[in-house]
Amino acid sequence: MIGFPILSLITFLPVAGMFLILFMKKEQPNSIKYLSIGITAIQVVLAVILLANYNYSAAGVYQEKSFQFIEKFRWINISGLSLLGTVKVDYFLGIDGLSTPMVLLTALISFIAAISSWTINKSIKGYFALFLLLDAGMMGVFVSLDFFLFYIFWELMLLPMYFLIGIWGGPRKEYAAIKFFIYTLFGSVFILLVMIGLYFSATELMPDGARVHTFSMLALMNPGNYSFDGILSMMNPSNLRLVAYIALFVGFAIKIPMFPFHTWLPDAHVEAPTPISVILAGVLLKMGTYGILRISYPIFPDITRQLMWWIALFGMINIIYGALVALAQKDFKKLIAYSSISHMGYVLLGMASLTTVGLNGAIFQMFNHGTITAMLFLIVGVVYDRAHTRGLNDFGGLAAQMPIYTGFVTVAFFAAIGLPSMSGFVSEALVFIGSFGVASIRAISMISTLGILLGAGYMLWTMQRVFFGPLNEKWATLKDLDKREYLMFIPLTLIIIFLGVYPSGMLNIMNTSVNTLVQFVTTTISSTSLGGL
Amino acid sequence: MSESLLINICIVILFLPLVGFSTVIILGKKIPKLYIFEVTILGVALLLSIIVAYTKLTFYSTKNIIGAFTWITMSNAPVGDSISIDLGMKIDNITVLMLFVVNLISFLVHVYSIEYMRGDKRYTRYFAYLGIFTFSMLGIVLTHNLLMMYIFWELVGVSSYLLIGFWFEKKSAADAGKKAFIVNRIGDIGMFIGILILFTQYKTFTFDTIYQQIASGNLPFGSNGWLTAAGILVFLGAVGKSAQFPLHVWLPDAMEGPTPVSALIHAATMVAAGVYLIIRIFPMLTADAMLVIAVTGAVTSLVAATIALTQNDIKKVLAYSTVSQLGYMVMSLGVGAYVFAFFHLVTHAFFKACLFLGSGSVIHSMHHEQDIRNMGGLRKKMPITYFTFLISTLAISGIPFFSGFLSKDGILAGTLAFGKLTGHWLIPIIGFTVAGLTAFYMFRLVILTFHGEPRDHHKFEHAHESPFVMAAPLVVLAALSIFIWYTPNPIGADQGWFMKDWVKAPSQVTPLETRFDFMKPSSEEAKAEVHGEVVHSVEYTETMHWAHYPAMVMSLILAGLGILIAFMFYQWKKFSADKLADKIKPLYNFSLNKWYLDEVYDKTAIAGTLIFSSILSWFDNKIVDGIVNGSATVTKFTSGMSGWFDTYVVDGFVNFTAFFSGFIGLSFRRLQTGKVQTYIVFIVFAVVILFLIFKPF
């Protein structure tokens, strides 16, 4: 264990950075940029320290003791309210194998996005302040263990995102920003309702022996904490758990985004500036699947088991539908956006398997999708910066003009296709191994393999349209990558290849927790036989 | 040499080309001379593989050496045990022979390319790609498990993609690369599902462990049907990679790549990987799966041979001949002639590489002319190319004293025996037909290219024999197409060390009831006699002996006939090929246009997918997003209505109330005049009215 509250530090460091920036002069754009990159770089260092001190055999999930780097104290405490009794909210941070990959990913992607933000030149102060706030919000979501706190971070990240798209975006930025904001908020309402429902259905045993209502995720996972008459209590014969589960799932599904709630994504991506697209695809989408794993699965294990076939089905739809729609796109960025939908489908499919292998694959896929898609959006950004167009048919022959760039493109594209020796292959393979092993979703898993074929189809077709063929004379002046761009591409490339060759580096982090989660979800009784209160 | 040393050398052999690739791709821009490094590395790898092959075949000829490590290990809730995924190498006789073949041809192609590719603007990168290809191919050869097979399987796919599209400025080259990768992926999906079936049941990818499990009666999902399915699905990978019908369409297009690449990847090694895969999964193939494989191979060999008859591009003829020969190998495995399939793989690798490099030599000297109608008479200008080409052609046509005769004859005998034992006579009939067709189109190619008078004098004038680095590989490969390397008896392969000592068919592990009768051991005694290694029944061995001479005689007659007809048409011009083509125009066009398969695929599968994807895109845009935007519009409209209602009705009522009170107030204000007289008048009126109402009196 480390002597200082590392999770608070890694979460709130960007907020401190934000305040610093607010006090800086507008006339020093470069120092603002350096400061932001510096802050995110420190985050990366902290993430590495975290990893160095990480206990690979601690499970977490539902056992408070085996969470790591815990910080917990009473944050809100109002007692003596006549009707509600004591209202308490904990400031409760901690990580386990489910969240650690996401924390690492957030730190990494924020750093890369900060470098990529160098080209922003419109109201720099505001941009980087919001950027750092966004960073803090994302990190907070992954480290919170209190539902209330989680929800605050979840909403917190919405606000900067809205402005970042709405101010620094493309031609239809207002439309895209509002669509993103309202859609996500729409989902948040469901999450909020379920959160309140859970709060009133369960209580937590305090050290002094009293029972108070709680937002603690860990307490909510214990069926024994629910009262007989709670509307979300398993012991209540007329409970609303199924409805609540679906509502919560919709709230998270919008973020993933899952068909049919995905249409905000292409618009948001197309309009967002490159670094924001990178964050959006790299980290934000993961919050949806992370929420399902962290909250829906262990709090509603009974309903999860009941609905796994449906989750798999939607995973399959995402994979195939996303890929087919991607095939029809003529805008480079939109194509990547739809490919993102397709790739998040694998996460759903792996999660639905309810096996360690499948879930390991799903979380690994979340991480890999983060790095690979971030790279893909950076690639679009590079060419858009230079050519000011993203039309797939406007290009041609860039491979001869920009060979090094094309080299990185080849790596990223083949990683997205799922080429062995790159990280995406391992996670997709694990997802398939996991889901194929479960008889009820075997057929779905088999159909989903079509995604591998379609993925190769749209990626290679893009490769051909943009990079191969005779060079379009219009682009004979385009420059190859500069040093700053190397700095974005090289770390991602190395990580993608490293994890493709040595996947255990990441899988070992999550294995214990995932195994515990699967055991918990598959064995926790739907029990009316529970003692309860 | 100890076993672990052998393994370690193999690891070195595997990674050497990768080192070459990485070095050249990173530093190649700064140091263009690095290609020499890559070539040297291949030379070292070749040397090492010769040492390994020699050691293995001499000292460990009956022992399989395995080296493996755990790549991924994870828990396995809810079942409770754990899963570990091993990667590793299995070094048996087939492995070391393949190591040698791959490294030799790769080395020769490297050397050849020094001259062939000279002046290309991406010269060093070309050598880097050759390096990554060789690495991937060696991975396939060395693997002891299905996952690693799949990993390297995809990697060769990518290197093939990069090399086919090496001249990506040409649209046709970029198209061909994409097509190759995607068509291969179709097969790979089948292979992947097959692997998934096996892994789900056995929790391992390792061949030997899977076979032990099957042998002990543990079947995938407990049924013979799934075992057959797994075999056929994994075989689908081979259908893609080895260009079997109906997925063969990518290989002829792949000829867009540089010709040495065609020799290395699309003739000798990578396309043979499919055959190698079937060789590896052979023990678990049921009779049904084998029949599917045999039929696929037979159909492929026939389809490709009929197409090769009419092609005019020198590389296209060779490409279809490759497809056809791969069909032979696959068919051979399907009929149980395991050893001959592998033997043909090796002999074919040498003579086909020689043919391709020879064609490259011709193309090089003719300034990128590939149409054989513009060639002719090159024999005098390019004697080395001609003679090596001729030797290889004799080999592929199945003429005694050449390697192809030995392996091909074995395959034909195998099909004949298969026909006799199972009644599937169509397979040997196709086999023999293809033998005749092969001899015909190969000699058509030789005659049109090298014999007669030059048809394009301008290009002919410039033609010249290739320099030493290009000619030497041809000579080496042609030399390897002669029988003496494989057996002392030019017409009896089974007396050679290749068949007798090195390569043995493995025993099948499938349940007895799923095997062909001839694949069952005849008796317990027979089984005991050869330590459980019995693959075939005694009946089969006898039938093979019976089939040997008829097959040889028939194949010789047919090959001779094919050659004779080729000479009649093209050398002596007794008949006119053009006139014949006119007479059977539909058939001729059918062959010339490759059975119209590309057109059919374009119009059905590809167009269908694209249309479907546009429809879905429209659906996404108009319907799914339409609902979102629609609900936004509805919300806006509702809020507009509410706003109106609020402004005009709710607020209107409020305002009306105010207005009304005001009105009342205003009205009454007039009464408040402040004059006492008026008030007195009001009071009097009021009193009068009150009196009138209440009538107190």
Question: What keywords describe this structure?
Answer:
heterodimer, A: 533 residues, mainly alpha, two-stranded antiparallel sheet, 4 strands, 6% strand, globular, disordered C terminus, B: mainly alpha, two-stranded antiparallel ribbon, elongated
Walk me through the structure:
The complex is a heterodimer of chains A (533) and B (697). Chain A is mainly alpha-helical and 533 residues long. Chain A has a domain at 300-525. Chain A has helices at 6-22, 29-52, 100-116, 124-143, 147-156, 158-168, 173-201, 217-221, 241-255, 264-271, 274-299, 301-327, 332-352, 356-387, 398-401, 403-417, 423-436, 442-448, 450-467, 483-501, 504-523, and strands spanning 68-81, 85-95, 203-205, 211-213. In chain A, strands 1-2 form a two-stranded antiparallel sheet. In chain A, strands 3-4 form a two-stranded antiparallel ribbon. The longest helix of chain A has 32 residues, at 356-387. Chain A starts with 5 loop residues before the first helix and ends in a 10-residue tail after the last helix. Chain B is 72% helix and 3% strand. Chain B has helices spanning 3-27, 35-59, 93-116, 123-142, 146-164, 171-202, 207-215, 224-241, 250-253, 259-268, 270-281, 287-308, 314-334, 338-365, 378-381, 383-397, 403-422, 426-450, 457-462, 468-479, 497-502, 524-529, 538-571, 577-583, 585-592, 597-669, 676-694; strands spanning 65-75, 82-91. A two-stranded antiparallel ribbon of chain B has the order 1-2. Chain B is elongated and about 155 Å long. Mean pLDDT of chain B is 88; it is low at 528-533. Chains A and B meet through helix 7, helix 12, helix 14, helix 16 and helix 17 of A and strand 1, helix 5, helix 6 and helix 26 of B.
